[in-house]
Design goal:
InterPro entries: Ca-bind (IPR051581), EF-hand-dom_pair (IPR011992), EF_Hand_1_Ca_BS (IPR018247), EF_hand_dom (IPR002048). This protein is mainly alpha-helical and 209 residues long. Helix content is 59%, strand content 5%. The longest helix is centred in the first third of the chain and has 15 residues.
């Protein structure tokens, strides 16, 4: 697991479960249900929607939306789903754009937090092409300190791959991490950290920024 995030991830999931009982806002409830699964929870829902988007329109109608929520085992009744759908279907077209949906679902972050996340991303993205791959990590991340590398269980590439998989959604690990995926992951972590100052210190320490 990545420097300093496993604990935050757990704390965030526990906090999300706790807050679920208090909130009546349907969008917030959906957000918290995703976050209760950890930082990759929102991204996981995005992947479910992407798989369902057969015609690659990047939009969902209400039926697809409900099916996606069910496939992802979200506890939401039809009325609540309708209410959420209405919030996202701003133009009343009967479809929602799921990139917009995921951005809105993501816990809001201050500019300062987004900047430090992007700093970490740029540091990892050695090739500067906007995607972090195993190639990028070779130049930044020393696999030789990893216990599984030391005891001979994993090769260097397997260490890198496991590291990238942290940021990827559980269902579709492709060994590539985009800016959006990195942001989504840290939006989850960020949700459990109250102050910008603490979040920034954590990021600086984790990534030696």
């Amino acid at each position: 697991q990545m420097p300093g995030t496993a604990r935050h991830d757990r704390e965030m999931a526990i906090q999300a479960k706790r807050n679920l009982s208090k909130t009546t806002d349907p969008v917030e409830r959906l957000r918290l249900q995703c976050l209760a699964r950890g930082s990759a929870g929102i991204k996981g829902l995005g992947r479910v929607f992407r798989i369902m988007d057969d015609d690659n329109s990047r939009t969902l109608d209400f039926k697809e939306f409900v099916k996606g929520l069910n496939d992802y085992a979200m506890m939401i009744d039809k009325e609540e789903a309708q209410e959420i759908f209405r919030v996202f279907d701003k133009d009343g077209s009967g479809t929602i754009d799921f990139d917009e949906f995921l951005v809105t679902l993501r816990p809001p972050m201050s500019k300062a937090r987004k900047e430090i996340i992007m700093q970490a991303f740029r540091k990892l993205d050695k090739t500067g092409d906007g995607v972090i791959t195993i190639e990028d990590l070779r130049g930044v991340y020393n696999a030789k300190h990893h216990p599984k590398y030391q005891n001979g269980d994993w090769t260097e590439d397997q260490v890198f791959r496991a590291f990238l998989d942290n940021f990827d959604s559980p269902y579709d690990k492709d060994g590539k991490v985009t800016t959006e995926e990195f942001m989504n992951y840290y939006a989850g972590v960020s949700a459990s950290i109250d102050t910008d100052v603490y979040f920034i210190i954590m990021m600086k320490n984790a990534w030696k920024l």
